[in-house]
Amino acid sequence: MMALEDAWRCVHCGLCLTACPMREAWPPYGEVGTPRGKVSMVQGYLMGVFGRDPNLEEEFWYRCSLCERCHQFCPLHLRISGMVLGMRQRLLEDGRVPQVARRALMSLHRYGNPWHQPPESRGEWARGLPLKVSGDGNGAEVLLYVGCFGSYDPRGQKMARALAEVLLASGVEFSILGPEELCCGREAYSLGEKGLLEWLRERNLEIFSRYRVRKVVTLSPHCYDAFRNLYPPFAEVEHYSVVLAKLMREGRLPLKGSQGEKVVYHDPCHLGRRNAIYDEPRQVLRAMGFKLLELPHSRQMAFCCESGGGKMWLPSPGVPMGPKKILQEAETLGADAVVTSCPFCVAALEAASGSLEILDLAELVKRVWDQR
Fold it and tell me: Hey, what CATH class is 255-371 in?
């Protein structure tokens, strides 16, 4: 994480102002709500000016999704998201945490998930599927790590089932952890709880070691980012979109054809900007014969759905504009559907959607497989 003291390197050029997906939420706050304004507030905090200013809580909890789009515009490559994380840690240490975020963190510590759901029901999404469960003694070296959203959220469960069925159909030997699966800790870290991340990381690594996991396939880019960037090297880690692309190249998912539909692919922040996975999801769509249209803002410049960075558990300062912009651009292109590969993005886009169908990549692959 970037040290708060790096805020002094900012030259206040203002290029980050056009990058922030939450800029419509700035008025009437003006400059203070911008990425540049956050840097100024960090400087003021370091000088002792903003020690108890309530604007610290307003700006650093509610007005950033850690999407790092501003990083793409900064000529000095400053990671303002790192400064936001640093301020959240300071605020958390002072007990200045929004109640809804506090409840999510308490649930993570008590239940291993932020939704106050019992661990025993974590594998309910897989009911009826012939999956191996590591705790039953018949696990495989490849672990499908579903994550909290895929385990408990009804919409996420549909994505998890679709992915599991596709992997089964392609002959991949894998297992799940079922009730033993714990949160990866990514969102705890995003909420400033570094200690909780460390606790979850230690427990997860012990579980992975116990079952001799050699490869982890994640449903969520957030889990992928956590295992790749917040954990020590422990196994091969891949996001499922990369796995599907490999299976298609190997001929294990023979889905070539002409589907005819026009689709756009939305790049999730934690998969794209944070981990530079852009091509594989597009390869999957093209291999299935879809006409892939590119959004004007895609890849490094993709808009944020505004659900990451702990925002799932933080009240929004206004109507999320990122999803609306993504959908407006897709409609202008004449797309039939928006495809993405992140449970958070699917949920955010569906909440803002009108006529366009919103699909997770694994769901679309499953649909084409069933129709072949």
Answer: alpha beta
